[in-house]
Amino acid sequence: MMFIQYMNKFLQIILDYFSPENLLLLWGKLITIIIILVVAKIVLSIINKLIAKSLTPLKKSKNYQKRISRANTLIPLLQSISKYVIYFIAGVMALRELGVDTTAIIASAGVVGLAVGFGAQSFVKDVLSGAFLLFEGTISVGDSINVGEHSGKVEVIGLRNIHLRKFSGELRVIPNGEVASFGNFNKGYMRAIVEVGVAYEQDVEKGMKTLEEIANKWAQENQDIVLEPPIVQGILSLGSSDVTLRISVKVKPMTHWEAERELKRRIKDAFDEKGIEIPFPRQVVYLRKEKGEK
Hints:
alpha+beta, Helix Hairpins, SH3 type barrels, Alpha-Beta Plaits, 3 domains, 5-stranded antiparallel sheet, 3-stranded antiparallel sheet, 8 strands, 53% helix, 17% strand
C-alpha cells in the first residue's frame, strides 16, 4: 500500500513537471541557452579576427619578419585566452537561465584558484616562465633553438609549455619552467665555423692560404648571406696526428649549417687537388730485435 502511494506521488511530480506551462518554460530556457551559445560563438569569431588583424603586420612594414614571427606567437595564445573567457561567461549565463545561483560560483572561483595555485606550484612556475618568454620576445614561433639535449624548431609557445619539433620529426613538449637556459639560432647572426686538420708533414702556410682562397671565393658567391669577410684564424691546436686550422664566416641566422657543409666539401676537393693531406689517427710501431735473434 505504501509503495502504491509513493508511486502515485512520483507520477504526480512527473506530470506536474511536464505540464504544458512547465514545458513552455523549459523550451523558453532551452532556446535562450542556444541563443547565448550562438552569440558567444559569433562574438568569439569576431574577437579572433580582430586579434589576427591587429597583430598581423603589413608585408611592406619595417622589420616584417620579426613582427610576423611575434604575431604567430601571440595570436594563437590570445585567441585561446579569449575562447576560455567567452565560454566561461556564456556558461555562467546559461546556468542562470537554469536557475542556478552563480554568485557563489563566481565568488568561490578566486578562492579555488588560490588554493589550486598553492597546490600546483609547478603549474604556476610554468605559467610565469611562459609569460616572461612571451613578453620578452626571446623565443618566437619558427625559431630554431636548443633546450638541454633537444634541438628543433618552435611550433607552439603557450603559457604552459613549448612544442619543439626536432629534425627527426619528434615533437617534444617542454614545460616553460624547464626552459632555464636555451640557445636561439635566429637572433642577430651566426658564424659558420669549420675546423680542418692537416698532417704535420704538410706546409701549414700553404694550408692556411688554401683555406683563405676557398672561403673568399665562397663569400663572393654568397654575398646575400655573408655579413663579414671570412677569417682564417690560424692554428687552433696541435693534435696527436694533425695540426688543426680553423676558418669562420659571420652569416645571417639559420644559414650557418648550409655554409659549413659547402665549405667542408670545397675544402676536401681543394686539398685533394693540391695534395694537402688531411690525416687520420695512426700509430707507428717499432719492432726491436733482441740480441742473438736472427
